[in-house]
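Researcher: Last one for today. Full complex below.
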Amino acid sequence: MSNTLRLEIVTPDAVAYSADVEMVTLPGVAGQLGILPRHVPMMTQMVPGEVIVRKDGQDQFLAVGEGLVEIRGDRVEILTDMALEADKIDEAQVEEARQRAAARLQEKLSSEEVASVNAALARSLAQLRVRRRRSK
Amino acid sequence: MAKARALDKRRKSIKNIRKITRTMELIATARFKKAMDRATAATAYTRRITQLVSDLAQAGTQVSHPLLEGRDNPRHATLLMLTANRGLCGGYNASVIRAALARWKQLPEETEHQRFEVSGKRGISALRFRGLMPDQKFTQFEDEPKFDDVARIADRYLEEYAAGRLDRLDVAYTQFVSSSKQIAVVETLLPLGTLEGASQPDGKAAAGKAAAGKPAGGPARMYEFLPSAASILEEVVPTSFRVKLFKCFLDAAVSEQIARMVAMKSATENADEMIRNLSRTYNRARQSQITNEIMEIIGGVEALKS
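Model: Here's the assembly. Have a good evening.
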């Protein structure tokens, strides 16, 4: 039996991550989920946050957006609208985006806009959190 | 002399036009490659969604969702037409517009209210020419449409559909079949109908499966759902709609670049041929002029001799 998981993180723009890893921790709707090889098949939803990938004993961090996760024995597929590795996040730019989103929430918006701004805000926050915590 | 000089002038201007068309051809080729890469990257996502749906269905989940089922008497229809912002791409815009207008004429028979939404300056001006006013215009989509931009439009449709302000959405765009074949089609995106991979795998779903390297019709796998299968379905369906719409935009972008590439290639070839013909005529005119001059000189000498 193999001791690794095949992890694939796919966004509409690209396959953001694809490798054999030892463990994946992801932000599920009901809290953090740690997934090891030979996990029971599962489908779940994911909220914006941080995915921790353990590969060759080293942890890697990615900021992700909302998405769906499918786990099938030795495969983990994450379908999300955003996936960024911690060191590829441009903090200043994200901070600006966050402030812009926060400022827009103060304005009068239709419910549809509020939802999209909230989603943008959650995405920037996830990126910032990952960036601040993980980069030296 | 006058004739030869005029010919030379024409030849020069054609040479300049040829330079332009040749450059445009090269640019279109480069853009086509980029657009193609993006489209390929997006298929990975589409395929996974299809896979997810078929796994969901295999696990015994009832795949039903308001977006999948049509309404009994559709009242509000929207037609979205995807054209280019620029011309000089052969019949690309014309064929999409033709397909869209044919559907536009049909819609009043089936629905009460229609909205016409257009992306691309070419489509907008074509409608204006026909005296139609588009209800919504987009010009921000260039050769690489962003998923976020498309998702925003998709979300608006989803909201309208949920609120009952939209019962049917048709999209007229150029479908990319292969790099030598693109066809203008009108597709009904809402209601979604059956999701690919949901029930009996139709041709497309089967192809997707084969590409993903999964044996079709394997034993039903038991899945655990968190929080529940229904809530996952709740998210899968809108997502697959967004992705479908995004795919339309990508296809349109790729097809546009191909159309432009082909159009510019034939323009360059035509220019080449014209230059060849003109050169021939020019040389002939110049030669006959020289002959004339020599004849005149000889005539003059002969006259002096006698």
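Helices of chain B lie at 2-58, 92-110, 121-129, 147-162, 203-212, 229-305. The longest helix of chain B spans residues 229-305.
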